[in-house]
Amino acid sequence: MRQRINPERKATLARCAVVVGAIVGMTSTYAQDSPLGMTIATKGAAKGIPACISCHGPNGEGNAAAGFPRLAGLSAAYLSAQLAEFATGQRKSPVMQPFSRLMTLDDRNAVADYFSKLPAPVGNIAEDPGKIKPSDTGAWLATRGRWSSGLPACAQCHGPGGVGVGETFPPLAGQPAAYISGQLHGWKTGARPPGPMALMPVIASKLSDADIAAVADYYGGEASAGVAPTKVSK
């Protein structure tokens, strides 16, 4: 006897089929748009370049435990520029520098294009600044800054909720707390290039180690883990 499927379950199955089809379609689109980038990102290259996803996650979402940043959804121009800085030694990383030097300009641009087209993971939702208390250091600095010391809010450049703005100011929401902490320490010590308008070294110099940990936890979504400041260079 043929089993009948109730209408509600049938509708749910139909919705699932649409979602699966969309995901398959997106993957196919990425492959068509960035075949070289997808190959390097998912399989690596014969000249000694490992697959990017081995550190940055199968969907470019990053690895919070290891402090490897997310790449998915960042602008292609920003990602390509970072790879170029690793390749020239302007930006330091014992992991990224050797691999970036093995990549041609076309390789770097293709990988950057591939990851820029992957959907960004859901990050923090922008909070109402009026409901944030000064005692919540990370949220306060992120949304309001500390004007008594000339420190603007992170959101003024990186957008509400840390979503990123244009090709110059990358998303912060969803990046591993250890990665954000490491980059801020890098700017503070001069280990990382100053970037657009040399803003970040000035910003970082106004942050204490506790401030850095709080902001990193806020955007990394790991406040409960109490991530301590670390100098992650990747």
What does this molecule look like?
This protein is mainly α. The protein folds into two domains: 31-116, Cytochrome c-like domain (Cytochrome Bc1 Complex, Chain D, domain 2, Orthogonal Bundle); 129-225, Cytochrome c-like domain (Cytochrome Bc1 Complex, Chain D, domain 2), CATH 1.10.760.10. It contains eleven helices and no strands. Helix 1 crosses helix 2, helix 2 (35-43) crosses helix 6 (105-116) and helix 9 (177-189) packs antiparallel against helix 11 (209-220). The longest helix is centred in the N-terminal third of the chain and has 27 residues, at 7-33. Residues 5-31 and 223-234 have low confidence and may be disordered.
Q: What descriptors fit this protein?
A:
single chain, 234 residues, mainly alpha, Cytochrome Bc1 Complex, Chain D, domain 2, 2 domains, 11 helices, disordered C terminus
Secondary-structure map:
Elements: H1 7-33, H2 35-43, H3 53-56, H4 76-88, H5 96-102, H6 105-116, H7 137-143, H8 155-158, H9 177-189, H10 199-205, H11 209-220
Rough outline: globular
What is the first-to-last residue Cα distance? 61 Å
pLDDT < 50 runs, ≥5 residues: 5-31, 223-234
User: How much strand content do the residues show?
Assistant: under 5%
| Element string (H = helix, E = strand) | HHHHHHHHHHH
CATH class of the largest domain, named Mainly Alpha
Q: Spell out the CATH superfamily of the largest domain.
A: Cytochrome c-like domain
